[in-house]
Amino acid sequence: MTKLPFSFYQNDDVNSLAVQLLGKQLFTNVEGQLTGGIIVETEAYKGVIDKASHAYGGRFTNRTQVMYAAGGLAYVYLCYGIHHLFNVVTAPEGTPHAVLIRGLEPVTGIDVMLQRRNMNALKPNLTAGPGALAKALAIDKVLNAKDLQGEEIWIADSGMSVKPENIAAVPRVGVAYAEDHALLPWRYYIKGNKFVSKPNT
DNA sequence: AGGGGGATTTACT
DNA sequence: GTAAATCCCCCTC
Predict the structure, then answer these.
(1) I need a labelling partner for A88 at 20 to 30 A (CA). Which of A14, A27, A45, A119 fits?
(2) Which of residues 81-140 of A touch strand B (CB under 7 A)?
């Protein structure tokens, strides 16, 4: 199992990259605990042209500056004051594209993840949903801007390939106002996987 | 310097 | 099904 190389993240086609991330494995090694799993749901954020992106319109702030860096970094931020959301920064330097990781199928350190989530048995909601999986992997803002080829958090290629017919591509929710971008399928997930955050049909 | 909003989750009715 | 929790960031005054 090898970590994805720097070059993988330089693709400026963020939709293509969001698809390629399905089936890859995300790991964290914090507090001496190794945890990780298979990425089963992603969502593409097209930087400057995406109204839902923090970098929409070229906004450049303390928080968003990491999105403008060359791909291969983590972008972690706090939502609703409670939940940490983990994104993969992609595209060459200057292009603030990112991929939100929304669902993970647990593989490594499941007992540790259960503890962090205060759960006793493995259920889909352990890591289904961006806030939930971040908590299970102990991802917080400390990991913001970390190199995804580092020792604390990384993404590896397990060699698993997901067939195109097993990948669902659906429009994002609540973007009906976004003109011709409204119907673009920016949310991707592995069909039938229990760790996808929502049916979202 | 202050206030509104957010890529969500959980619990309760 | 609906509502509350909760804090950091960004825009405006």
Answers:
(1) A119
(2) 81-83, 85, 87, 98, 100, 117, 125, 129-132, 135
Task: Sketch out chain A's domains with CATH numbers.
Answer: 2-190 (3.10.300.10)
Quick one: chain A helix, strand, coil %, rounded to 5? Answer: 25, 30, 45
Residues near chain C strand, CB within 7 A: A 54, 59, 61-64, 77-78, 80-82
A63-94 confidence digits (pLDDT tens)? 999 999 999 999 999 999 999 999 999 999 99
Element (H, E) at A42: strand A33-45
For strand B, which nucleotides have at least one atom less than 7 Å from a protein CB?
6-10
Phi, psi of A112 (to 5 degrees): -65, -40
- Would you state the structure tokens that stand for residue A153, as one six-digit string? 């958090």
User: From CA A28, how far away is CA A38, in angstroms rounded?
Assistant: 12
Q: Structure tokens of A179?
A: 């003109």
